[in-house]
Amino acid sequence: MKFGVVVFPGSNCDDDAHYVIGKVLGQPVEFLWHQSEDLCGADAVILPGGFAYGDYLRTGAIARFSPVMRAVERFAKSGGIVLGICNGFQILLEAGLLPGAMLRNAGLRYRCLPVHVRVEATDTPFTCAARRGQVLEMPIGHNEGNYFCDAETLAALERNNQILLRYTTPDGRENAAANPNGSLANIAGICNRERNVAGLMPHPERASEAALGSADGLVIFQSIAEWFARHGGAARHKAENATAALQAR
Amino acid sequence: MLQIEIKVTAEIAAEHGLSSEEYARVLKILGREPNITELGIFSVMWSEHCSYKSSRVHLRRLPTKAPQVVQGPGENAGVVDIGDGLCAAFKIESHNHPSFVEPFQGAATGVGGILRDIFTMGARPIAVLDALRFGPVTKAPGAAGASTEIAAKNRHILDGVVGGIAFYGNCFGVPTVGGDVAFAPSYSGNPLVNALALGIARRDELFFARARGAGNPVLYVGAKTGRDGIHGASLLASAEFTEESQQKRPNVQVGDPFLEKLLLEACLEAMQTGAIVAIQDMGAAGLTSSTCEMASRGGVGIELDLDRVPQRETGMTPYEMMLSESQERMLLVAECGREREVIKVFAKWGLDAIEVGRVTTDGMMRVVWHGQPAADIPAKALADDAPVYQRPLAPPTTPRGGGKLIEFAPEGANLTDNFARLLAWPAIASKRWIFEQYDHMVRTNTLAWPGAADAAVLRVKETNRALALTVDGNGRWCWLAPREGAKAAVAEGARNVACTGARPWAATNCLNFGNPEKPEVMWEFSECVDGIAEACRALEIPITGGNVSFYNDTLGQSIYPTPVLGVLGLLEDASRAVGIAFQEEGDSILLLDGTGEDRQRAGIEIQRELSSSEYAFALRGIVAGAPPAVALAAEKNLVEALLALSSEKLLRSAHDISDGGLAVALAESCFASRGCAAQASIATDEPLESALFGERGARAIVSCAPGSLARVRDIARQCKVAVVELGRVTRGGDFIVAVNGKAAIQAPREELHASWADSLKFIMAG
Predict the structure, then answer these.
(1) So what's the ipTM on this one?
(2) What is the secondary structure of B471-533 as a DSSP string?
């Protein structure tokens, strides 16, 4: 399979995602330039962290209008695998590919620290190689990661099992002290209803090698590769079919 | 010559900070009176900030040569070879005055400026560290604290500075991986913000700021020129502060890290075309310094057409354009006929690259505006022929440190409460509140996070190597005894780097001092330079560049002389990096002492030493006595021992003894671990407080598996380093340090950890 990592002006985790996919995971990977609508045949698209277009307005507010996002939207609608990390998550929210919005962190400060997140759902291309309930240690680094949505949306996220990761203590307990930014329901990552588009605030690419303190994040990239290996071109079809196939197995 | 309303007189020259001798020199160089633009150009280039006119004669004494040095002082950054065809470019620079006037933007643009210095060399920045000095942030009695009002103001400055560093570095995408912070009343009216940046480049792809090739086009890239920052270098950085200094706010620039990120990517990509001949950023003195310095280094001239310079505002005069310090701008010389290739890369990144001039052969910096000459000055006269001063120097008339010395606590006293207070003291307490606001992980090279090791450790991707980097400098010690204090800064830097397993490889220095026109300040400066030179020679560390910041005075009061050393270390094998955290219950805790077997010291010597310590300052408000004498041979032995031990992977942790002494070092190794505590005991005939909190150098606390103990002793002996077994690593329970068999400090590990961990957060919450 082939990964594509989008480069917006101001992306600064693009190299890091590219490095993990290419050198650690050992999968083909290519940069996708923001001004092009050509996804270069990528089977999975990563929207990396950073400050796209400077984020001087609202995080992700300008990036969503870039040409590459038109292609990403089409790709996502046709079932393609799309993962937004940090700023990439914020862009997916702005683009309406994921529900909800990001507020400024509860403490009104940028925070960079390792956190623990619990895997809540494993029937997705992003978490299928993890165990449900598994606690992963990954760093966060953001100023606007305080996830928010209305009660109806939250109910739908819960009902459809769209919450992928929640902030917890190292032993997997969900409480306010484990929540680094005030996110609603300790949400650290979600997917869309079709389960082919996901956004994560923690950085799995910063936790994919033991030398950096944790290799727990690698499971996210491994999941994508595994999912693709299992379903092949299914990622190009409606992801619902793929989910149904997995559940039937 | 173009007629611009203001006729230059000696009075106007004086207002521009030029002395009458300097103005006479201008007249002689030009053979006529300068116009106002030319006067402005001379005044910034000959300002202390740009010309180093007071420091130059002293800086020559620093050792700058070693086989690994690729580029020493004089370029945008120093460069050293790190093997595998790669180089490290690094440099430290101050942004003190702007950070006082406008803490957030002052600190932000300080980071922006040093990053440009690095990528101008063709190196991609991979790390930033900051050395920060503030006035007291707590209300405390005696010399150590400040009034409620001043403490609140200092907290405001600290908050703004940290916010500005975070704003710029986080968005730009460079990790801020370490630094140091200290507090003293002398910084209340004059905080120090020193930013160090490190980058990596291929040795055969370095770029220099030397213009050449008559007829080659000069391109302007990046942000448009506005009226911001005019005279930042000459009026803000080269004069003392007075009560009116707040009015200098318009002299502070405003940073745009997003634009700088684009500039970085575009510059590195454009350099790959091979069509760039020379490049320099527009930092202090903007268009003026970049033009005349590139021309002077290359022995050529440059002609600029100001009408082509992208402008943010209308109606700007040549004077304003030449002196603007608008940020995120670069000047480069392209190869004639290949400028399209360069312009195309900048266009891809959404940046203008405009041809604003040409390289000429006559050595003149010629500026044209509206078709008429606006300035015509020999480039070399501006860049290299600035006046050089051998300013008078004199030691203080009353020797320093003569105040009341610390009285020792009685033998057998329980010092647990004092220890807990010391742990909560801002200079000692955890700096987590600060570094959590910095992205310290981006680029995924950070092997040791802030506080995890004695120096930041960054791997060099696609090699086995890693680089270690630290900034150190004790202003209080340099005030008490400038030469010893400066030596101690070098020694501590070397020790910190060696504790991680890295060999000290090169250093950059930022010399922060008061008004050089005061003989006492000049004496401090000269003494510090000698101290740095002596220590660098002994420890075999070349100085590859740096920055001098004078005029750090407010209302006539100078700051502590504060040389900050940024020491870079090289680790051949990144997997051998050592942190400060204890690892395993039952591991042996050892004190390595480079001074060898304990030497009997006189009681008064010990008392004077402890009076200069952080302990004396924090608990008694005492700044007196003299810092511990630096034993350079002992420091060198310790460095060699640490390197030999880590190369055999014998150390589970290593942490040098510095601020707060042995007790604090032990506690920090516990706090950095996942739940470890320590049980240690020392036998000594020194007073309790000196044994626990004394800051004598050439010492480190290490831990190893009990099975490695014999080998550790062997290696240490070969390096002439004494090994004292202090105790064991424990898990949970009490942190205990016994002296001569009696517990001097004993408290639950978690209790002590809490005083240390959250102190700064509570202080900053007011």
Answers:
(1) 0.94
(2) EE--HHHHHH-HHHHHHHHHHHHHHHHHHTTPEEEEEEEEEE-S-TTSHHHHHHHHHHHHHHH
